[in-house]
Amino acid sequence: MPKRRPWLDWELALLRSDYPNSPTVKLAKRLKRTVTSVYQRAILSGLRKSEEYLASTDACRLRRGDNIGAAHRFLPGHVPANKGLRRRGWAPGRMAETQFKPGQKPHTWKPIGSTRYSKEGYLQRKVSDTGYPPRDWVGEHILMWQKAHGPVPPGFAVCFRDGDKAHRELDNFELISRRELMRRNTIHNYPPDLVDVIRLNGALKRRLRKLDEEHADGPPQPSL
User: pTM of the prediction?
Assistant: First the structure.
């Protein structure tokens, strides 16, 4: 990271004398600094552009009250130059063959009521089709809890008492706070021997994934 260059006394004096009535770009060139640096130092020094400068043509975008740029805007009723040149559904070459058609669903789409397993191993059911997965897919254990006890209160979660995500029985569910859930999932709360096993298991899985990626196209062939 480049070292920040300190402001010298003569630079500060020049900034105080010229900033109120000079374009910042020109002042930055004289000081051999960036425009942002000059603006920041001016703010720290409590400097502002003068009324005379703000009323001049040099103020550009800072100028107010004279409707800057009005002559270059599109007027009401303006007709775009390319109007009518593009037809609806038009595409060059064979692009139209691969475009989604109205109402077409992606190949990964599933209807409401479908089930799947999440990356964490929870059985989920599709309850809506908004296109937002966290809202459309809900854990089966959560749906079972809601059917028996009502909605899950904000800040709480439904968990498995025995930690087995395949054991989906009401007696195996419990409602706990998110804070308690975070505490339970913290590895530092486990016995030291179990922590070592968890870490070694994670390292082994990472190594296996790496080997799978390296040999995705098949095992290496022996060289002749």
Answer: 0.46
